[in-house]
Amino acid sequence: xxxxxxxxxxxxxxxxxxxxxxxxxxxxxxxxxxxxxxxxxxxxxxxxxxxxxxxxxxxxxxxxxxxxxxxxxxxxxxxxxxxxxxxxxxxxxxxxxxxxxxxxxxxxxxxxxxxx
Length: 116
What we know:
The chain contains no helices and eleven strands. The chain is mainly beta. The strands form two sheets. Strands 2, 4, 5, 6, 9, 10 and 11 form a seven-stranded mixed β-sheet that branches. It has a four-stranded antiparallel β-sheet with strand order 1-3-8-7, with no helix packed on it. It is globular.
C-alpha cells in the first residue's frame, strides 16, 4: 500500500514557475514508476510526465516538453514536477500516480491555476 500526498500548487502568472511535490508513504517506493497527470475542468485526465523506477527514463506529453521536468528522490520517497514557462492552458488539478504491475495508487491532487 502506498499513500501519496501532493503539494506545491497555487496561483501563478503566465510565464511563471511552480514546483510540485508528491510524498509517498509506505514500502518500496523505488519499485514504482511515477506519473504526473492533470485534469482540467470539463476535460479528461491526461498523462503529463512519467519517470521510471531508478529515474533513468523520463517521458512527457508534447504539450509540456521543454517546459516541465520530472524527477525523483528515492531516499526521500518523493517525486517532483518542475513547471516553467507556465501557460493558462496548464491550469488543472495535478495528480501523482504510482504504478507497478497491477497496482495503481493516486494522490488527492493539487490545484494549479495560471492566470494574470
